[in-house]
Amino acid sequence: MRVIAGAALAVVVLGLGAPAVAQQSSTNPSSSVLAPSSAVVAPSSSAVPPSAARVAQQACGAATVQVPPSATIGGTLRLTGSGWCNPTGGGSAIAVKIDDGAISHLAGQGVHANLTIWQIVNAAADGSLDATITLPTGTNSTPAFAAGAHKLRLLTGTLAPGDTPRSVESGEFTVTGDTPAPPGPGKPAGVPDPLDTTEDLTEAARGGVTATLTAGSLKVTTPAAAAGDWVFLYLHDPSPRPVTWLAADASKSVTTSVAGLALPVGTHKVAVLDRTGKLLGWDDVTVAAGSTGSTGRELAATGAPTRLVLGTAVLLLAFGGVLYVAATARPRRESGS
After folding, report:
1. What does pTM read for this prediction?
2. Is 337 a residue whose pLDDT tops 90?
3. Alpha-carbon torsion, ordered 139, 144, 149, 155, to 10 deg
């Protein structure tokens, strides 16, 4: 009876620890011994061995980036670095932003729906990075890219499936060079209405304009005009004479030939109008006698040459009269002899 009772007690104890096993032990007592050991092994079986991609990622190390210390507006910038592995295999796809996204592409010109992503580069399969960034020109970004200190921000995790989210900032680099002026609207059509020489071209309306006329070439500088602005020139002599539309250069100047205008000798006013017909300012220019483009009306400009011509004509007429009288008098004397 003690043996049977002991066996029954053992069955009860095992049944409390694992009811399912106790049920199986009724038909196969030996399975009640294996069950506990399999329960111990189960927790260790949940540890998945690292994949080859994860091992490769760990071997890449932390992502780094290096940039040269200087660049130029519209130039290129070389990026180098390491640690840019994608855990699923291969290199990372990297979004590059300028100054944390402060510089954006113009609408319709971006490389991504997010216009603050200036460029996308790809690392090599071993995670190494060697790529070239083309910097903004100053006319293809908003705001306009300017000279000074800048940084890049490199981001991963959203451009390629399974990639590691990263945000790495480059060192500072200095950009030099002039920012080109953005191009203005195209050349206007037609000719703006002329201004009144007396009422509009007053001393108060000069606007700091300077005009020079040299060998038939007219140069006009207009402080109120910006580089790329189209301006229209009128010459007043004294009536307004249209010249042409011209685009101001970086020094706010325009130059054109007036050799074919046959300008009268004297002082003329050059008026500068913007594309809306508004007066930007005016200045005087002088056409000298015999200069290229003059009409040769210097006789009308001064009295002395006119008097000289008239005096010469009178003398010729008088001399002609003397000859006529002499010629007619000789036959009379012959007839009376």
Report:
1. 0.43
2. no
3. -90
Least-confidence region, from 19-33, 150-164, 218-232: 19-33
Which residue type occupies 52? Answer: A
Joined together, the tokens standing for residue 164 give 């590691």
pLDDT per position as a tens digit, 21-73: 333 333 343 333 333 333 333 444 344 345 555 555 567 899 999 999 999 99
User: For residues 163 and 246, what is the distance between their CA atoms, to the nearest angstrom?
Assistant: 55
Q: Are 96 and 120 in contact (CB under 8 A)?
A: yes
Q: Which residue has the tokens 């960034």?
A: 133
pLDDT in tens, 130-142: 999 999 988 899 9
Helix residue ranges, H only, 18-122: 19-25, 31-45, 52-60
Q: Structure tokens of 235?
A: 């010459």
- What DSSP string describes 152-210? EEEEESSSSTTPPPEEEEPPPEEEES--PPPP---PPPS-PPPPPTTTTS-GGG-TT-E
CB 97 within 8 A of CB 118: yes
Q: Distance between CA atoms of 175 and 92, rounded to whole angstroms?
A: 27
CA 19 to each of CA 29, 30, 35: distance values in angstroms, whole numbers, following the listed order: 13, 15, 11
The pLDDT of residue 295 is 52
CA dihedral 18, 19, 21, 24 (to 10 degrees): 170
Listed in sequence order, the DSSP H helices in the chain are 2-17, 19-25, 31-45, 52-60, 298-301, 303-335
Closest CA to 230 of 217, 249, 211: 249
